[in-house]
Automatic annotation (TrEMBL):
It holds the Pfam family FhaA_N. SMART domains: FHA. InterPro entries: Cell_Proc_Reg/RNA_Proc (IPR050923), FHA_dom (IPR000253), FhaA_N (IPR022128), FhaA_N_sf (IPR042287), SMAD_FHA_dom_sf (IPR008984). This is FHA domain-containing protein. PANTHER family: NUCLEAR INHIBITOR OF PROTEIN PHOSPHATASE-1.
Length: 221
């Protein structure tokens, strides 16, 4: 199921029990979900860590239509839906999700316009990579995190046995996964070498990136 369809499913649940909105005498529910889905689909792009989607959305409505928004269609609710869907699907967000609802008289009544963009910014970690002594060596802030020696890596490990782009660690469906990017010295889970096929990382599993060893700990469990 696509990212757009996942968001649509969550938005359908969000709107359950919400009465229809009357626009210009015609009863219909404000088509918020379709606008966001279209914007997300059109702006999806490839990142070295994998598929990425926009994190900033602006919804433009005519001033007359703003009071007709269902109570469930708050910006915070829409932000939560997009964030949770990206986390479940393993899509990368380059910054925190932001949804702004804008009053714009240039937008026709009974209509709506959505713009999306990617704006890098700090995010709360969903997990931490712990070092050998149990200390936090690296916070994992991106849903899909690129690990390696290069400056563009989310988790930069400055060791000669770590490749420039070494591995990708990501979250999907409340689980952690990792795969190797064809590195020179390999990636191991519990001392077993892995390939470009994602491998599940369970609690207390030991990860080896080149010569560095870590344990993954979820930040909110």
């Amino acid at each position: 199921m696509s990212f757009a369809r996942r968001i649509e499913s969550r938005l359908e649940r969000l709107f359950e029990g919400v009465s229809a909105t009357v626009f210009g005498g015609k009863t219909e529910r404000l088509d918020i979900e379709n606008k966001i889905l279209r914007a997300a689909d059109l702006a999806m792009f490839d990142h070295p860590a994998g598929p990425s989607v926009p994190n900033r959305y602006r919804l433009f409505l005519h001033p007359e239509n703003l009071p007709l928004l269902p109570d469930a269609a708050t910006a915070a609710d829409l932000e939560r839906v997009i964030t949770e869907t990206a986390m479940d699907e393993g899509w990368r967000l380059n910054g925190p999700v932001s949804v702004t609802i804008v009053s714009d008289p240039a937008v026709p009544t009974r209509s709506m316009r959505c713009e999306s963009e990617t704006v890098p910014g700090p995010q709360e970690p969903w997990a931490n990579l712990l070092g050998a002594t149990g200390n936090v060596a690296y916070p994992v802030t991106h849903i899909r995190s690129l690990i390696g020696r290069d400056r563009d890596c989310d988790i930069q490990i400055m060791q000669a046995d770590v490749s420039r782009h070494h591995a990708v660690l990501f979250a999907r469906n409340q689980q952690a996964w990792i795969y190797d990017l064809g590195s020179s010295n390999g990636t191991r889970v519990n001392d077993i070498g892995i390939t470009t096929t994602p491998v599940l990382v369970r609690p207390d599993d030991h990860l080896a990136i080149g010569g560095r060893r870590f344990t993954l700990k979820w930040a909110y469990r």
